[in-house]
Every structure is written in structure tokens, then in C-alpha cells.
Amino acid sequence: YNMGYNDGGYGVLSSASLERWVTNIEYSVKLAREANPKIRMILASPIPNEVMVSKEPRWVSREWYPYALLSFGQEEAKLARRLGVSFVDTGLLYGQSMGLGQVAAGESFALSRDGVHPQREGQTFIAFHLLRGLGADPLVASVAIDAGKAKVTDKQRCKISDIAVKDGVLSFRRECESLPYPTPPEARPFAFLARIDDNLSADILTVTGLGTNAYTLYVDDRKLGDVAAKELED
Questions:
Q1: Which residues in the chain show pLDDT less than 50?
Q2: How much is the pLDDT for 2?
Q3: Residue 97 belongs to what H/E stretch?
Q4: What pLDDT shows up at residue 24?
Q5: Which of 52, 54, 178, 222 is deepest in the core (most CB within 10 A)?
Q6: What strand order describes the sheet that includes 151-156?
Q7: Digit-coded pLDDT (tens) for 102-144
Q8: What pLDDT, on a 0 to 100 scale, did the predictor assign at position 28?
Q9: Which sign does the torsion angle of CA 140, 146, 147, 150 carry?
Q10: CA–CA separation, 57 vs 75, rounded Å?
């Protein structure tokens, strides 16, 4: 894994720095394979700096540096194919999230404190894209219940027990095999930019055979909201 952020020299794109960077990555892959032939590796392109955020002269605030880093990523993708190593274009994916955020929130949007160092918001996106690149399954769990028969009709990656219907209330206990992606509170307002919940934390409940038009959904005695019966069926 290689962020490569500093390797661009904080300046315009240089063929010498690009060549040196690619050579170093190739040599690192060689050493890793020699140390452990079964090692699993993934190369990741460097993320672009946030020009609109950077105000400190010692950090990158030049408009040409994102282009340099994206160019590094293009060469790294070619290298990964040549070496037979997995590659995640975090630079492109992170940059797309960054751009969408600026469209949605304007100049107040930021994933870093200085244009260079991602805060927990930015780190969340980096980890998300890496996990997706490693093939992480988006599904946490899925369950389908026929409320009219108090019966589970389908379930994936979870166990259902204590299912009951009484006085118009459907209740059951669910134990999942895994947890959802731990999006920190700071990143929660931005999670929709990459559809994190759908792409890495899909948690699906389907209920049919309902007797009234709307229900109130609780999880562990915590009210989540009122839900239409049609929505639960879908």
C-alpha cells in the first residue's frame, strides 16, 4: 500500500520524481514477495490535496499538485497490472467524493484540516475505498419475515429467534455474523457521498403479511421511526 503523497515533491509533475517513485514501489513489491511469497498486496494511488482548504504556505496549496498526484496514480495502475498486484485508485475515488462534497456544501466542505492531512472524515473514505478494493462484501445481514404466519421466509448472515406476533406487534431477536462499517460521527453527514451504508453496511429487513398501514420500528427499545407497511414489504 502506498499513499505516495510526499513523493511528488509538492511541485509540478516531474518525470524524474515519477520514475523514482515507480521504481521504489516495484522494488518494495519485490522485497515483500521475497520475504513472503504468499503475501497479499494492494497498491493504492495517492489522494489529491484540497486546494480550497490549504491556507498554510508550507503545505501544498498549489493548483497543479492534484494533477501531479493523479498522474502518479495512472502510472501506479500500469505498474500494478504488470506486477500482478491489486490496485485501488483511491486518488480518483477520494477526489470524486471531495468534488461531490464541494458541490453539496460549497467551500465549507473539507476532509482535511490543512488540505493535506485527512481528518477522520477523510480517513473514513480512504478506508472505505480500500475495503471495497479488497472485495469487502456490502451485505451485513438480510432477513425476510411473514408477519401473518410469524415465520422467517429468508435470512442471510444472521440468526433469528424468539419471533412472535401479539396485539399487532411483531418482535424477534436477531444475531448477525458481522458488524457494519464503523462510520465515525464526524463522517456520518458525508457518508452519502460514497453511499457507504449501501456499499459496505447493507442491513435489509423485509416484512410481509402486515395488518395495518404503518408501523413504528424499534431496535433494542430505541425508536427509529414510523414506517409505512408498503415500505417494509419492499
A1: none
A2: 63
A3: helix 90-105
A4: 92
A5: 54
A6: 151-156, 139-146, 202-208
A7: 999 888 899 988 888 899 999 999 999 999 988 999 999 999 9
A8: 93
A9: negative
A10: 28
The C-alpha torsion from 228 through 231 and 233 to 234, rounded to 10°, is 180
Asked if residue 114 lies in contact with residue 54, where contact means CB atoms within 8 angstroms, the answer is yes
E-only strand ranges, 16-76 = 42-44
| Contact status, residue 139 vs residue 157, Cβ threshold 8 Å | yes
Residue 173 parent element (H or E):
strand 169-176
CB contact at 8 A, 134 and 201: no
Q: Tell me how far apart the alpha carbons of residues 115 and 36 are, in angstroms, rounded to a whole number.
A: 37
pLDDT score at 184: 93
Scan for cell 480518483, then name that residue.
Answer: 92
C-alpha cell at 102: 464541494
Would you say the C-alpha torsion 115, 117, 118, 119 has a positive or negative sign? Answer: negative
Q: What pTM, to 2 d.p., does this model score? A: 0.83
177 burial via Cβ count (<10 Å: 0-12, 13-18, 19+)? exposed
| Backbone φ and ψ of 216, nearest 5° | -105, 130
Relative to beta strand 86-88, strand 169-176 is unpaired
- CA dist list (Å): 151 to 143, 162, 189, 214: 11, 11, 36, 20
Residue 219 has φ and ψ, to the nearest 5°, of -130, 120
Among 161, 204, 158, 148, smallest CA distance to 178 is for 158
pLDDT at position 183, please?
92
3-state helix, strand, coil in the chain (%, to 5): 40, 25, 35
Grid cell for residue 62: 498549489
